[in-house]
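Researcher: We're reviewing a set of sequences before deciding which ones to prioritize for further study. For each one, I'd like a predicted 3D structure that I can look through quickly. This is Enoyl-CoA hydratase. If possible, include the structure in token form so it fits the rest of the review sheet.
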Amino acid sequence: MSTPYLKTHEIDQIGVVTLNRESKRNALDESAIAEIDQYFSTIPSHIRVIVMAAKGDHFCAGLDLKEHHDQERSAVDFMRVCQSWHRAFDKIQHGGIPVIACLQGAVVGGGLELASAAHIRVADISTYFSLPEGTRGIFTGGGATVRTAKIITPNRMVEMMLTGRVMDIQEGLRLGLAHYVCNSPENPVSAYDFALSLAEKIAGNAPLSNYAIVSSINKISDMSATDGLFAEGLMAAVVQTGNDVQSRLNDFVNKRAHKVKPG
Ligand code: 1HE
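Model: Here's the predicted structure for Enoyl-CoA hydratase, in token form for your review sheet.
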């Protein structure tokens, strides 16, 4: 039996899922996608936040090019592969649980598509991004035209794909492919420890607020303004009247809550 693609463990309310195919730079084959789908379909109810990390020097080298080469898939076969990626990555983005990706080294092709499905991306300073599909004679199929293009703009994605260039972490940070850079002179903590500290903080939010944040904002941005405002109002009406609200607002009214200040 082959080694599982994912290793998982829990730290209190945080689920940690680690890509575990270091010898192939965590390239994604069909069974890897099936495992990702399975994991994000069956998150236990006590888990509030997920940290998605990867073993080795590289987060993910994208589509398993050897599997694709060896299988000589037809167009219909590959359409099915794409749909399986879309299903699995949709569960990451729209599953209602915040997912923090912890990046290092190559985040390329399908690896960038996977990272783009996460809600927060914490990057080691070694991280770099690329969409080398054009140079390999293929095309993105794991959601980049929707998710990655939304982050960096479609125009930038076209340029990255035509040139196949490698984008360094500083540019990735400016464009939103990473939200935080770690293991750097300014932020010497490891990306994994930083991601865990963010996860602990986010786990302290009201679960319904987290659900609304991760499941409605991206969807509303695909709607017309009229539909979006209506959906926002509905979402807020549910969240603002949820179980946690009175006790949290009570803390504020009685001056027990934290204040929003810098530092
Ligand atoms: C792989 C893959 C892979 C590595 N599929 N086996 N993705 C790419 O075009 C990226 C291809 N990979 C690389 O450019 C490099 O491997 C890395 C820069 C990521 C890492 O380099 P390095 O020197 O650390 O490792 P390596 O020696 O190149 O690779 C180690 C092993 O991993 C080696 O196998 P081995 O049996 O010879 O040990 C590699 O063949 C294997 N490996 N990457 C299969 N991707 C839904 S459509 C999405 C479309 C895409 O994702 S296109 C992007 C494809």
